[in-house]
Amino acid sequence: MKLELAGVTHSHGELQTLASIDLEAAQDSVLGLVGPSGCGKSTLLELICGLAEPSAGTIAVGGASTAEERLARCAFMPQRDLLLPWYSAIDNAALALRNQGMRRAEARAAAGALFERFGLAGFERARADELSGGMRQRVAFLRTLVAGKPVLALDEPFAALDAITRAEMQEWLAAALRSDPRTVVLVTHDVEEALYLSDRVAILSARPARVVAELSPPAPRAADRDAAVTDPEFVVAREEAMRALREGSR
Amino acid sequence: MRRRLLPLGLIALLLGLWQVATSTGAVVDAFDLEPFLVPSTAEVASALWENRGLLADNAWVTLREILLGLGLALAVGVGFAVLMHRWRVLRDAAYPLIVASQTIPIVVISPILLVWFGYGMTPKVVVIALICFFPIAVNALDGLRSVDPQAVKMMRSLDASRWQRFRRVEAPAALPSLFTGIKIAVVVAPIGAVFAEWVGSSSGLGHLIQSDTANYQVARQFATVVVLSALALALIGLVALAERRVVRWR
Questions:
Q1: Contact at 8 Å (CB) between B150 and A43?
Q2: I need a surface site. Which of A163, A185, A221, B101 has the fewest CB within 10 A?
Protein backbone atom coordinates (compact mmCIF):
# COMPACT_ATOMS: atom_id res chain seq x y z
CA MET A 1 0.00 0.00 0.00
CA LYS A 2 1.39 3.37 -1.02
CA LEU A 3 2.21 6.05 1.50
CA GLU A 4 2.20 9.78 0.71
CA LEU A 5 3.03 12.66 3.03
CA ALA A 6 2.55 16.22 1.75
CA GLY A 7 3.45 19.32 3.71
CA VAL A 8 3.08 17.57 7.06
CA THR A 9 3.56 20.08 9.85
CA HIS A 10 2.92 19.46 13.51
CA SER A 11 3.07 21.36 16.78
CA HIS A 12 2.65 20.46 20.43
CA GLY A 13 1.23 23.69 21.77
CA GLU A 14 3.88 26.34 21.08
CA LEU A 15 6.53 23.79 20.15
CA GLN A 16 6.79 22.98 16.45
CA THR A 17 7.98 19.38 15.97
CA LEU A 18 7.61 18.85 12.22
CA ALA A 19 8.14 21.41 9.47
CA SER A 20 6.48 20.67 6.13
CA ILE A 21 7.52 17.10 5.45
CA ASP A 22 7.03 15.60 1.99
CA LEU A 23 7.74 11.88 1.66
CA GLU A 24 6.59 8.88 -0.32
CA ALA A 25 6.89 5.14 0.04
CA ALA A 26 5.93 2.75 -2.73
CA GLN A 27 3.88 -0.36 -2.02
CA ASP A 28 5.83 -3.05 -0.16
CA SER A 29 8.88 -0.84 0.19
CA VAL A 30 10.67 0.15 3.38
CA LEU A 31 11.01 3.84 4.18
CA GLY A 32 13.68 4.54 6.77
CA LEU A 33 13.50 7.70 8.89
CA VAL A 34 16.75 8.74 10.53
CA GLY A 35 17.33 11.83 12.60
CA PRO A 36 18.87 13.13 15.80
CA SER A 37 17.24 12.18 19.12
CA GLY A 38 14.10 14.13 19.91
CA CYS A 39 13.72 15.46 16.35
CA GLY A 40 10.14 14.29 16.00
CA LYS A 41 10.64 10.93 14.23
CA SER A 42 8.34 9.10 16.64
CA THR A 43 5.73 11.84 16.37
CA LEU A 44 5.82 11.50 12.59
CA LEU A 45 5.34 7.75 12.92
CA GLU A 46 2.34 8.20 15.22
CA LEU A 47 0.81 10.65 12.77
CA ILE A 48 1.27 8.20 9.90
CA CYS A 49 -0.46 5.49 11.98
CA GLY A 50 -3.45 7.71 12.59
CA LEU A 51 -2.84 7.94 16.33
CA ALA A 52 -3.08 11.72 15.89
CA GLU A 53 -3.80 14.25 13.16
CA PRO A 54 -1.05 16.60 11.91
CA SER A 55 -1.53 20.33 12.50
CA ALA A 56 -1.27 20.85 8.73
CA GLY A 57 -0.63 18.85 5.58
CA THR A 58 -1.97 15.48 4.49
CA ILE A 59 -0.93 11.90 5.11
CA ALA A 60 -2.46 9.34 2.78
CA VAL A 61 -2.18 5.61 3.31
CA GLY A 62 -3.39 3.83 0.19
CA GLY A 63 -5.14 7.04 -0.75
CA ALA A 64 -7.06 7.29 2.53
CA SER A 65 -6.19 10.29 4.64
CA THR A 66 -8.39 10.44 7.75
CA ALA A 67 -6.84 9.36 11.06
CA GLU A 68 -9.44 6.63 11.41
CA GLU A 69 -8.65 5.16 8.01
CA ARG A 70 -4.91 5.29 8.66
CA LEU A 71 -5.40 3.61 12.04
CA ALA A 72 -7.20 0.76 10.27
CA ARG A 73 -4.37 0.32 7.74
CA CYS A 74 -1.24 0.70 9.90
CA ALA A 75 0.11 -1.46 12.72
CA PHE A 76 2.30 0.37 15.20
CA MET A 77 5.23 -1.27 16.98
CA PRO A 78 6.33 0.97 19.84
CA GLN A 79 9.92 1.66 20.86
CA ARG A 80 10.05 -0.82 23.71
CA ASP A 81 8.56 -4.26 23.06
CA LEU A 82 5.73 -3.59 25.55
CA LEU A 83 4.78 -7.23 25.81
CA LEU A 84 1.99 -7.45 28.35
CA PRO A 85 3.43 -9.34 31.34
CA TRP A 86 0.06 -10.91 32.22
CA TYR A 87 -0.08 -12.73 28.89
CA SER A 88 2.03 -15.56 27.51
CA ALA A 89 4.10 -14.99 24.37
CA ILE A 90 1.40 -16.47 22.15
CA ASP A 91 -1.39 -14.40 23.70
CA ASN A 92 0.74 -11.28 23.23
CA ALA A 93 1.30 -12.22 19.60
CA ALA A 94 -2.41 -12.90 19.11
CA LEU A 95 -3.54 -9.62 20.70
CA ALA A 96 -4.67 -7.97 17.47
CA LEU A 97 -6.65 -11.05 16.42
CA ARG A 98 -8.39 -11.14 19.79
CA ASN A 99 -9.18 -7.42 19.46
CA GLN A 100 -10.58 -8.11 16.01
CA GLY A 101 -13.02 -10.54 17.62
CA MET A 102 -11.36 -13.89 16.93
CA ARG A 103 -11.91 -16.59 19.56
CA ARG A 104 -8.94 -17.36 21.79
CA ALA A 105 -8.24 -20.85 20.45
CA GLU A 106 -8.37 -19.71 16.82
CA ALA A 107 -6.24 -16.63 17.53
CA ARG A 108 -3.63 -18.77 19.28
CA ALA A 109 -3.58 -21.22 16.39
CA ALA A 110 -3.16 -18.42 13.85
CA ALA A 111 -0.36 -16.69 15.76
CA GLY A 112 1.21 -20.00 16.77
CA ALA A 113 1.58 -21.03 13.14
CA LEU A 114 4.21 -18.28 12.78
CA PHE A 115 6.19 -19.11 15.93
CA GLU A 116 8.33 -21.70 14.18
CA ARG A 117 9.22 -19.37 11.33
CA PHE A 118 10.14 -16.63 13.79
CA GLY A 119 12.45 -18.90 15.77
CA LEU A 120 10.09 -18.92 18.74
CA ALA A 121 8.88 -22.53 18.65
CA GLY A 122 8.58 -23.97 22.15
CA PHE A 123 8.20 -20.53 23.74
CA GLU A 124 4.47 -20.13 23.08
CA ARG A 125 3.56 -20.27 26.76
CA ALA A 126 6.58 -18.36 28.07
CA ARG A 127 5.99 -15.08 29.83
CA ALA A 128 7.74 -11.93 28.67
CA ASP A 129 10.36 -12.02 31.43
CA GLU A 130 11.35 -15.55 30.44
CA LEU A 131 12.34 -14.44 26.92
CA SER A 132 15.64 -12.95 25.76
CA GLY A 133 15.70 -9.39 24.40
CA GLY A 134 15.82 -10.61 20.81
CA MET A 135 12.93 -13.02 21.36
CA ARG A 136 10.81 -10.35 22.99
CA GLN A 137 11.42 -8.13 19.99
CA ARG A 138 10.43 -10.94 17.64
CA VAL A 139 7.20 -11.55 19.58
CA ALA A 140 6.48 -7.81 19.43
CA PHE A 141 7.11 -7.83 15.66
CA LEU A 142 4.93 -10.91 15.28
CA ARG A 143 2.17 -9.13 17.21
CA THR A 144 2.43 -6.23 14.76
CA LEU A 145 2.53 -8.50 11.70
CA VAL A 146 -0.37 -10.71 12.81
CA ALA A 147 -2.66 -7.65 12.87
CA GLY A 148 -2.79 -8.23 9.10
CA LYS A 149 -2.38 -4.60 8.12
CA PRO A 150 -0.73 -3.46 4.88
CA VAL A 151 1.53 -0.91 6.59
CA LEU A 152 3.90 -1.59 9.51
CA ALA A 153 5.20 1.34 11.54
CA LEU A 154 8.28 0.34 13.53
CA ASP A 155 9.63 2.77 16.11
CA GLU A 156 13.30 1.96 16.78
CA PRO A 157 12.50 -1.75 17.00
CA PHE A 158 16.03 -2.84 17.94
CA ALA A 159 17.23 0.14 19.98
CA ALA A 160 17.25 -1.79 23.25
CA LEU A 161 19.36 -4.69 21.97
CA ASP A 162 23.10 -5.29 22.15
CA ALA A 163 25.15 -4.88 18.96
CA ILE A 164 25.31 -8.57 18.03
CA THR A 165 21.63 -9.31 18.67
CA ARG A 166 20.79 -6.14 16.84
CA ALA A 167 22.67 -7.21 13.70
CA GLU A 168 21.01 -10.64 13.90
CA MET A 169 17.59 -9.06 14.24
CA GLN A 170 18.21 -6.79 11.26
CA GLU A 171 19.09 -9.81 9.17
CA TRP A 172 16.05 -11.60 10.53
CA LEU A 173 13.71 -8.69 9.75
CA ALA A 174 15.16 -8.47 6.24
CA ALA A 175 14.36 -12.16 5.71
CA ALA A 176 10.86 -11.75 7.21
CA LEU A 177 10.12 -8.87 4.83
CA ARG A 178 11.53 -10.74 1.83
CA SER A 179 9.09 -13.58 2.41
CA ASP A 180 6.16 -11.42 3.54
CA PRO A 181 6.58 -7.98 1.93
CA ARG A 182 4.79 -5.03 3.50
CA THR A 183 5.00 -1.29 3.31
CA VAL A 184 7.16 -0.42 6.29
CA VAL A 185 8.08 2.86 7.92
CA LEU A 186 11.16 2.27 10.04
CA VAL A 187 12.25 4.88 12.54
CA THR A 188 15.80 4.46 13.80
CA HIS A 189 18.75 6.55 14.86
CA ASP A 190 21.12 3.93 13.48
CA VAL A 191 22.20 5.00 9.99
CA GLU A 192 23.56 1.57 9.09
CA GLU A 193 20.34 -0.14 10.14
CA ALA A 194 18.29 2.26 8.02
CA LEU A 195 20.53 1.83 4.98
CA TYR A 196 20.56 -1.95 5.24
CA LEU A 197 16.80 -2.39 5.71
CA SER A 198 15.27 0.43 3.65
CA ASP A 199 14.56 1.09 -0.01
CA ARG A 200 14.57 4.83 0.71
CA VAL A 201 16.09 6.62 3.69
CA ALA A 202 14.99 10.10 4.68
CA ILE A 203 17.40 12.04 6.89
CA LEU A 204 15.58 14.42 9.20
CA SER A 205 16.98 17.57 10.78
CA ALA A 206 16.86 18.55 14.45
CA ARG A 207 13.51 19.88 15.69
CA PRO A 208 11.43 21.09 13.96
CA ALA A 209 12.17 18.15 11.69
CA ARG A 210 12.41 18.63 7.93
CA VAL A 211 13.84 16.29 5.32
CA VAL A 212 17.48 17.26 4.68
CA ALA A 213 18.37 14.36 2.37
CA GLU A 214 16.85 11.30 0.74
CA LEU A 215 18.98 8.34 -0.19
CA SER A 216 18.45 5.09 -2.07
CA PRO A 217 20.61 2.41 -0.46
CA PRO A 218 22.46 0.08 -2.88
CA ALA A 219 21.21 -3.35 -1.73
CA PRO A 220 18.18 -3.23 0.54
CA ARG A 221 17.69 -6.31 2.74
CA ALA A 222 20.48 -8.33 1.08
CA ALA A 223 20.65 -11.89 2.35
CA ASP A 224 24.26 -11.47 3.49
CA ARG A 225 24.20 -8.49 5.81
CA ASP A 226 27.94 -8.47 6.55
CA ALA A 227 28.78 -8.36 2.86
CA ALA A 228 26.14 -5.72 2.22
CA VAL A 229 27.26 -3.27 4.90
CA THR A 230 30.95 -3.51 3.94
CA ASP A 231 30.30 -3.04 0.23
CA PRO A 232 32.08 0.14 -0.98
CA GLU A 233 28.84 1.56 -2.36
CA PHE A 234 27.16 1.05 1.04
CA VAL A 235 30.08 2.73 2.80
CA VAL A 236 29.77 5.75 0.50
CA ALA A 237 26.01 5.92 1.18
CA ARG A 238 26.67 5.71 4.91
CA GLU A 239 29.16 8.59 4.75
CA GLU A 240 26.69 10.64 2.74
CA ALA A 241 23.95 9.93 5.29
CA MET A 242 26.24 10.81 8.19
CA ARG A 243 27.15 14.10 6.51
CA ALA A 244 23.48 14.96 5.99
CA LEU A 245 22.70 13.98 9.58
CA ARG A 246 25.52 16.20 10.91
CA GLU A 247 24.36 19.13 8.81
CA GLY A 248 20.75 18.61 9.89
CA SER A 249 21.75 18.50 13.56
CA ARG A 250 23.28 21.95 13.44
CA MET B 1 11.99 -19.96 56.99
CA ARG B 2 14.19 -17.46 58.79
CA ARG B 3 11.69 -14.71 57.93
CA ARG B 4 8.93 -16.69 59.64
CA LEU B 5 10.91 -17.86 62.65
CA LEU B 6 12.37 -14.51 63.63
CA PRO B 7 9.08 -12.68 64.33
CA LEU B 8 7.70 -15.76 66.10
CA GLY B 9 10.80 -15.85 68.28
CA LEU B 10 10.42 -12.17 69.10
CA ILE B 11 6.75 -12.68 70.05
CA ALA B 12 7.70 -15.62 72.31
CA LEU B 13 10.43 -13.51 73.92
CA LEU B 14 8.06 -10.59 74.60
CA LEU B 15 5.37 -12.90 76.00
CA GLY B 16 7.97 -14.52 78.25
CA LEU B 17 9.24 -11.14 79.45
CA TRP B 18 5.68 -10.03 80.18
CA GLN B 19 5.05 -13.24 82.11
CA VAL B 20 8.14 -12.63 84.25
CA ALA B 21 7.38 -8.93 84.75
CA THR B 22 3.80 -9.59 85.84
CA SER B 23 4.25 -12.75 87.93
CA THR B 24 7.11 -11.21 89.93
CA GLY B 25 4.96 -8.13 90.56
CA ALA B 26 7.49 -5.84 88.88
CA VAL B 27 4.87 -4.01 86.73
CA VAL B 28 2.42 -3.72 89.61
CA ASP B 29 5.10 -2.21 91.87
CA ALA B 30 6.53 0.09 89.23
CA PHE B 31 3.20 1.71 88.36
CA ASP B 32 1.50 1.18 91.72
CA LEU B 33 -1.41 -0.79 90.26
CA GLU B 34 -3.84 -3.38 91.59
CA PRO B 35 -2.60 -6.89 90.60
CA PHE B 36 -5.89 -7.81 88.82
CA LEU B 37 -5.34 -4.90 86.42
CA VAL B 38 -2.12 -6.46 85.08
CA PRO B 39 -2.87 -10.00 83.86
CA SER B 40 0.09 -12.22 83.08
CA THR B 41 0.61 -14.03 79.78
CA ALA B 42 -0.72 -17.22 81.37
CA GLU B 43 -3.83 -15.47 82.72
CA VAL B 44 -4.58 -13.98 79.29
CA ALA B 45 -4.09 -17.42 77.74
CA SER B 46 -6.51 -18.99 80.19
CA ALA B 47 -9.05 -16.16 79.64
CA LEU B 48 -8.71 -16.87 75.92
CA TRP B 49 -9.48 -20.55 76.49
CA GLU B 50 -12.27 -20.13 79.05
CA ASN B 51 -14.09 -17.50 76.96
CA ARG B 52 -13.54 -19.21 73.63
CA GLY B 53 -17.26 -19.50 72.87
CA LEU B 54 -18.01 -15.88 73.75
CA LEU B 55 -14.95 -14.63 71.85
CA ALA B 56 -15.80 -16.71 68.79
CA ASP B 57 -19.40 -15.44 68.72
CA ASN B 58 -18.29 -11.83 69.00
CA ALA B 59 -15.41 -12.33 66.55
CA TRP B 60 -17.92 -13.63 64.00
CA VAL B 61 -20.02 -10.48 64.42
CA THR B 62 -16.98 -8.24 63.90
CA LEU B 63 -15.66 -10.34 61.02
CA ARG B 64 -19.00 -10.08 59.22
CA GLU B 65 -19.00 -6.31 59.64
CA ILE B 66 -15.45 -6.13 58.31
CA LEU B 67 -16.15 -8.35 55.30
CA LEU B 68 -19.33 -6.49 54.37
CA GLY B 69 -17.65 -3.10 54.87
CA LEU B 70 -14.63 -4.15 52.82
CA GLY B 71 -16.84 -5.59 50.10
CA LEU B 72 -18.84 -2.39 49.91
CA ALA B 73 -15.67 -0.26 49.84
CA LEU B 74 -14.19 -2.49 47.13
CA ALA B 75 -17.28 -2.28 44.92
CA VAL B 76 -17.78 1.45 45.33
CA GLY B 77 -14.04 2.31 45.42
CA VAL B 78 -13.12 0.38 42.28
CA GLY B 79 -16.29 1.52 40.51
CA PHE B 80 -15.52 5.12 41.32
CA ALA B 81 -11.87 4.76 40.30
CA VAL B 82 -12.93 3.35 36.92
CA LEU B 83 -15.41 6.19 36.37
CA MET B 84 -12.81 8.81 37.37
CA HIS B 85 -10.30 7.18 35.02
CA ARG B 86 -12.79 7.12 32.16
CA TRP B 87 -14.10 10.66 32.59
CA ARG B 88 -11.42 13.15 33.38
CA VAL B 89 -13.93 15.84 34.25
CA LEU B 90 -15.27 13.59 37.02
CA ARG B 91 -11.73 12.98 38.30
CA ASP B 92 -10.93 16.69 38.34
CA ALA B 93 -14.21 17.42 40.12
CA ALA B 94 -14.30 14.56 42.62
CA TYR B 95 -10.66 13.82 43.48
CA PRO B 96 -10.06 16.89 45.71
CA LEU B 97 -13.35 16.15 47.43
CA ILE B 98 -12.35 12.55 48.14
CA VAL B 99 -9.05 13.70 49.62
CA ALA B 100 -10.81 16.41 51.65
CA SER B 101 -13.31 13.87 52.96
CA GLN B 102 -10.40 12.08 54.65
CA THR B 103 -9.81 15.08 56.88
CA ILE B 104 -13.23 14.59 58.54
CA PRO B 105 -12.57 12.35 61.54
CA ILE B 106 -14.58 9.15 61.57
CA VAL B 107 -15.15 9.89 65.28
CA VAL B 108 -17.43 12.72 64.20
CA ILE B 109 -19.30 10.74 61.59
CA SER B 110 -19.96 7.56 63.58
CA PRO B 111 -22.52 9.01 66.05
CA ILE B 112 -24.39 10.59 63.12
CA LEU B 113 -24.48 7.25 61.32
CA LEU B 114 -25.78 5.67 64.51
CA VAL B 115 -28.62 8.18 64.62
CA TRP B 116 -29.40 7.53 60.96
CA PHE B 117 -29.09 3.76 60.82
CA GLY B 118 -29.72 2.59 64.39
CA TYR B 119 -27.82 0.08 66.53
CA GLY B 120 -27.77 -2.73 63.97
CA MET B 121 -25.02 -3.79 61.62
CA THR B 122 -25.55 -1.04 59.03
CA PRO B 123 -23.70 1.85 60.74
CA LYS B 124 -20.68 -0.43 61.41
CA VAL B 125 -20.56 -1.57 57.80
CA VAL B 126 -20.84 2.04 56.61
CA VAL B 127 -18.05 3.23 58.94
CA ILE B 128 -15.74 0.45 57.75
CA ALA B 129 -16.64 1.10 54.13
CA LEU B 130 -15.96 4.82 54.60
CA ILE B 131 -12.43 4.33 55.93
CA CYS B 132 -11.63 1.56 53.43
CA PHE B 133 -12.97 3.47 50.44
CA PHE B 134 -10.12 5.97 50.29
CA PRO B 135 -7.10 3.64 50.07
CA ILE B 136 -8.93 1.38 47.61
CA ALA B 137 -10.23 4.12 45.30
CA VAL B 138 -6.99 6.12 45.28
CA ASN B 139 -4.76 3.11 44.68
CA ALA B 140 -7.05 1.69 42.00
CA LEU B 141 -7.05 5.03 40.20
CA ASP B 142 -3.25 5.31 40.48
CA GLY B 143 -2.98 1.81 39.05
CA LEU B 144 -5.24 2.63 36.12
CA ARG B 145 -3.26 5.78 35.41
CA SER B 146 0.08 3.98 35.65
CA VAL B 147 -0.42 2.39 32.23
CA ASP B 148 2.30 3.27 29.71
CA PRO B 149 0.74 5.64 27.12
CA GLN B 150 2.74 3.80 24.44
CA ALA B 151 0.93 0.58 25.38
CA VAL B 152 -2.41 2.33 24.88
CA LYS B 153 -1.27 3.60 21.46
CA MET B 154 -0.08 0.11 20.55
CA MET B 155 -3.49 -1.31 21.53
CA ARG B 156 -5.34 1.35 19.53
CA SER B 157 -3.22 0.49 16.52
CA LEU B 158 -4.03 -3.19 17.05
CA ASP B 159 -7.75 -2.45 16.69
CA ALA B 160 -8.63 -2.52 20.39
CA SER B 161 -11.91 -0.88 21.38
CA ARG B 162 -12.08 1.31 24.50
CA TRP B 163 -13.42 -1.69 26.45
CA GLN B 164 -10.70 -4.04 25.12
CA ARG B 165 -8.03 -1.51 26.10
CA PHE B 166 -9.49 -1.43 29.58
CA ARG B 167 -9.88 -5.19 29.93
CA ARG B 168 -6.58 -6.28 28.38
CA VAL B 169 -4.23 -3.50 29.46
CA GLU B 170 -5.52 -1.01 32.01
CA ALA B 171 -7.33 -3.35 34.40
CA PRO B 172 -4.49 -5.92 34.70
CA ALA B 173 -1.94 -3.11 35.03
CA ALA B 174 -3.96 -1.65 37.90
CA LEU B 175 -4.16 -4.90 39.88
CA PRO B 176 -0.86 -4.66 41.85
CA SER B 177 -1.73 -1.15 42.94
CA LEU B 178 -5.31 -2.18 43.78
CA PHE B 179 -3.95 -4.95 46.02
CA THR B 180 -1.79 -2.40 47.83
CA GLY B 181 -4.99 -0.44 48.51
CA ILE B 182 -6.81 -3.54 49.72
CA LYS B 183 -3.95 -4.40 52.07
CA ILE B 184 -4.09 -0.94 53.64
CA ALA B 185 -7.88 -1.21 53.86
CA VAL B 186 -7.67 -4.60 55.58
CA VAL B 187 -5.38 -3.15 58.22
CA VAL B 188 -7.66 -0.20 59.02
CA ALA B 189 -10.96 -2.11 58.73
CA PRO B 190 -10.76 -3.79 62.20
CA ILE B 191 -9.96 -0.40 63.76
CA GLY B 192 -13.08 1.00 62.11
CA ALA B 193 -15.13 -1.97 63.27
CA VAL B 194 -14.04 -1.63 66.90
CA PHE B 195 -14.63 2.08 66.87
CA ALA B 196 -18.10 1.74 65.33
CA GLU B 197 -18.97 -0.86 67.96
CA TRP B 198 -17.83 1.45 70.73
CA VAL B 199 -20.18 4.14 69.55
CA GLY B 200 -23.15 1.86 69.92
CA SER B 201 -23.64 -1.88 69.70
CA SER B 202 -24.70 -4.94 71.63
CA SER B 203 -22.15 -7.42 70.26
CA GLY B 204 -18.77 -7.68 68.55
CA LEU B 205 -15.18 -7.60 69.78
CA GLY B 206 -15.22 -3.82 70.18
CA HIS B 207 -18.36 -4.04 72.26
CA LEU B 208 -16.79 -6.80 74.40
CA ILE B 209 -13.68 -4.71 75.09
CA GLN B 210 -15.86 -1.79 76.09
CA SER B 211 -18.07 -3.74 78.47
CA ASP B 212 -15.01 -5.49 79.96
CA THR B 213 -13.45 -2.10 80.64
CA ALA B 214 -16.49 -1.15 82.71
CA ASN B 215 -16.31 -4.46 84.62
CA TYR B 216 -12.52 -4.55 85.09
CA GLN B 217 -12.32 -7.85 83.17
CA VAL B 218 -8.79 -6.99 82.13
CA ALA B 219 -7.55 -10.50 81.27
CA ARG B 220 -10.51 -11.03 78.92
CA GLN B 221 -9.92 -7.58 77.44
CA PHE B 222 -6.37 -8.61 76.56
CA ALA B 223 -7.70 -11.90 75.18
CA THR B 224 -10.15 -9.96 72.98
CA VAL B 225 -7.32 -7.80 71.65
CA VAL B 226 -5.40 -10.98 70.80
CA VAL B 227 -8.41 -12.33 68.87
CA LEU B 228 -8.84 -9.01 67.06
CA SER B 229 -5.17 -8.98 66.03
CA ALA B 230 -5.36 -12.59 64.89
CA LEU B 231 -8.43 -11.70 62.81
CA ALA B 232 -6.64 -8.78 61.15
CA LEU B 233 -3.51 -10.87 60.50
CA ALA B 234 -5.57 -13.66 58.97
CA LEU B 235 -7.27 -11.17 56.65
CA ILE B 236 -3.92 -9.66 55.58
CA GLY B 237 -2.63 -13.18 54.95
CA LEU B 238 -5.65 -14.01 52.81
CA VAL B 239 -5.23 -10.83 50.75
CA ALA B 240 -1.52 -11.55 50.26
CA LEU B 241 -2.39 -15.07 49.14
CA ALA B 242 -5.03 -13.79 46.72
CA GLU B 243 -2.52 -11.27 45.36
CA ARG B 244 0.02 -14.00 44.67
CA ARG B 245 -2.58 -16.03 42.80
CA VAL B 246 -4.00 -13.16 40.79
CA VAL B 247 -0.89 -11.05 40.08
CA ARG B 248 1.25 -13.95 38.93
CA TRP B 249 3.51 -11.89 36.69
CA ARG B 250 5.15 -10.10 39.63
A1: no
A2: A163
